[in-house]
Design goal:
This protein is α+β, with helices and mostly antiparallel strands. Helix content is 16%, strand content 46%.
Length: 437
């Protein structure tokens, strides 16, 4: 019997609190007679420190145990075979012969259990962030929403060789914003499919999706579907999508095509085109109808606020150039068919980069951006690069120990840069530590 399998049986059947009899075949549930020599053998192994026993120096006290439970004991003893003396080894080998059938059943049960457990994987990140920020929110109040303790938990369940169900749960505890808490519900659930023969893939459900190198055309949680396939003979992937941003009150959806990948030894591209479901100039309810009572007119349903569609098509063009080893330059350009503020551009210079498995690895970057308020629905990079802003930022990342990353950045920006007297300067300093698992 393989010692590692038997050891795994013990860890999963005993240490995890699973009753040995729960997985046993019916014939293995019969009690071992109390006068059977196995009890004396087990007690001897306890006394010799091969397996742990009860305070009275025995293993099961006066209780009779089943043959399956005895097989679990033998498995534990087998794991310590190398530390046993000659006499104890002989006892263990004798018990292996006596309970060989039950040991095979135990190994099979553990194999099945490990296969089920192996289908489920969890990963995530804990983040502690501090901002020194004079930026203001939509109510013209200095925002402290990014001072927080944040948990990002991902779960995967492998359905079969092609499909995996996934979920994401985010929890925010904001310690400078009246201690507001966003509870960790399952904000996103989706399924990913991958077909290795063709390289094709698909993603269906509510997931975080982006378009453009820095997700500057679209970046955020969306309901929808996206699929892609490698273009033969090239380093490119072709993709099509239909997505609806999932922020509350939104009624706009986008569909289109994208392609990305390598076009040479040192150059990658990222291209996307999107079309909106609602046409330019249309309006929709930003919030649900609300019952409003007016003393003169009586009560009626009223639209609290409406959004007017500013654009119904947009495109993104991006390129990344690996200048030399450890140094790269990325550029993105976005344009929509809005009447104004319809362009966005960004340049990102990066030196080296972090590797969570490599203690001491580091990276530095410098970014310039100008994002028109009607250019798209960009990822705001955790509130540091908002729509309607322009400016620059520099940052540094470092891995002090495995799976821990420290990030510090500074940025100067002009917020609402196209709104005349409403424009204001923003200075942002941020430092944060991520613990990945």
């Amino acid at each position: 019997m393989n010692k590692k399998i038997l050891s795994a049986a013990v860890a999963m059947a005993l240490a995890a609190g699973i009753s040995g009899t729960a997985m046993a075949a019916e014939g293995s549930l019969a009690d071992v007679p109390k006068d059977h020599w196995s009890y004396q053998a087990v007690d001897q192994l306890v006394k010799d420190g091969i397996i742990e026993g009860m305070p009275d120096g025995t293993y099961a006290g006066d209780r009779a145990i089943s043959r399956y439970e005895m097989a679990v004991i033998v498995a534990r003893a087998t794991d310590k075979m190398e530390a046993a003396n000659i006499a104890d080894r002989a006892l263990i080998e004798k018990m292996q012969a006596e309970y060989g059938s039950e040991l095979k059943t135990l190994a099979g049960d553990v194999k099945d259990l490990k296969e089920q457990v192996g289908k489920v994987k969890f990963s995530g990140m804990f983040r502690a962030t501090y901002d020194n920020d004079n930026g203001r929110d939509s109510d013209d109040i200095v925002s402290r929403e990014n001072d927080r303790f944040y948990l990002d938990l991902h779960g995967d369940y492998k359905v079969n060789d092609n499909w995996t169900v996934r979920f994401q749960s985010e929890t925010n505890h904001r310690y400078s914003d009246k201690h507001v808490t966003s509870n960790g519900t399952l904000q996103r659930i989706w399924v990913d499919g991958y077909f290795p023969e063709s390289g094709a893939w698909a993603s269906i459900g509510r997931s975080w999706r982006g378009l453009g190198f820095s997700n500057i055309l679209q970046g955020g949680a969306t309901d929808g579907v996206q699929a892609g396939i490698p273009i033969k003979g090239t380093g490119l992937t072709a993709s099509a999508f239909y997505m609806t941003p999932s922020w509350e009150g939104n009624e706009q959806s986008y569909y289109g095509v994208a392609t990305w990948g390598s076009i040479g030894h040192a150059v990658d591209v990222n291209l996307a085109y999107e079309k909106a479901k609602l046409g330019k100039g249309e309006t929709y309810n930003y919030k649900d109808h609300e019952w409003v009572y007016d003393a003169a007119k009586g009560g009626k349903w009223t639209d609290i606020k409406c959004d007017e569609v500013q654009y119904d098509s947009a495109f993104a063009v991006g390129a990344k150039w690996k200048i030399v080893k450890n140094l790269s330059l990325t550029g993105d350009y976005i344009q929509s068919n809005a009447e104004n503020n319809n362009k966005a551009a960004e340049g990102l210079l990066e030196y080296k980069g972090t590797d969570l498995n490599d203690k001491g690895s580091f990276g530095m970057y410098a970014r310039y951006f100008k994002i028109g308020s009607n250019a798209g629905n960009p990822d705001d990079l955790w509130g540091s690069r908002k729509s309607g802003s322009k400016g620059w930022m520099v940052g540094f990342k470092y891995v002090p120990v495995k799976n821990v990353e420290w990030h510090t950045m500074y940025s100067q920006q002009k917020m609402k840069f196209a709104e005349g007297a409403d424009a204001f300067d923003r200075n942002l300093f941020r430092t944060e530590v991520d613990f990945h698992f």
